[in-house]
Structures are given as structure tokens and as C-alpha cells.
Amino acid sequence: xxSPIAYTGRPATxxxxxxxxxxxxxxxxxxxxxxxxxxxxxxxxxxxVGYFTGNLPAPLQDxxxxxxxxxxxxxxxxxxxxxxxxxxxxxxxxxxVEQSGxxxxxxTELLHARGYTITERRGPIQRLWGAGTLVLSNGVDEPLxxxxxxxxxxxxxxxxxxxxVSQILAHxxxxxxxxxxxxxxxxxxx
Length: 190
Prior knowledge:
single chain, alpha+beta, PH-domain like, 4-stranded antiparallel sheet
């Protein structure tokens, strides 16, 4: 029989007033099912190029076939893949960050300590794949939409937990700051 191992899942709560390190909880991308058509195009182009190379009619040459295939693959396979790859959602212990853009970057952040509501939307196809769209709204800023997030229920629970923990720590630190603040005595009257 072995001795029990300590649970190391959640880090210890920091002391009141101590700075808390920001840790990454999850980094997500939209579900890759949108790349299905790109994969079909790539397979079809590869098959067509393999079949027609050396079998083209007289005025056409093989380099023309290869050039057309390269253009089709660039616009219908590579660019959609890069667009999907460059759009990420990052959940940390302090905030949710959305980053997107292939050539120019766009970044949107939402802090857990400010609190926000989480709305979950799932269509029929999203339900089949276990995905969904989360809308995070704090009532002040523009809502942050996490579109086609895989394992949407798990992400929803993680975000709810982070909002709760962040607000508890912020409230505790505010009470600790108020309790430790020393108010100086007023100067004596002349």
C-alpha cells in the first residue's frame, strides 16, 4: 500500500496584498470543421494534377496546370488555414484575450475581476461536435464573442470559476488594504 499523494491541481491562494502571477489556463482556436472544404479542395486538386500531368491537350503545357493548381491551393487551402491558425482565444487567471489577424493583429481583452455574464449558444451542428459560441458581456464594453469553441461546456465552467475566484480575491485584497491603511493624525491646531 502506498501513501496518498498530495493534490497539486490548484495553486495555493496568495497572501492578502501579495501580487498574484498570471497563469495561462487554456489557449483555444475555433473548431477545425470549417477546414473540411479546404481539405476536399486539396485532395481534388492533387488528384486532378496527378491525372492530367502529361495528358493535357496540345496547346496547354504541364507548367500551366501546376500554376493553376498552385493558385487554387493558395486561395482555397493555405489562406483559410492561416486565417484559422491566427485566430486564438487565451484564458488566463486574470483575463480572456482574443487575438486575430494574419498580417495585422487585433487584440481584445476582458478582465475577470470586472465580472461579466456568459451566454452560451449552440446550433444543431455545433451540438453534434460539442462546440458552441460564448458571448462574454460586462455591460460596458462591446461583448467578446468566442465563436465555435470546442468543449464549450468545459470552457463555460472554467470562465465562471475564474470570475468567481478573481472577484473573491479582489474583494479580500480591498478589505485587507482598508484594514492595513494607517491614517495619520491631523496636525495640531495653532
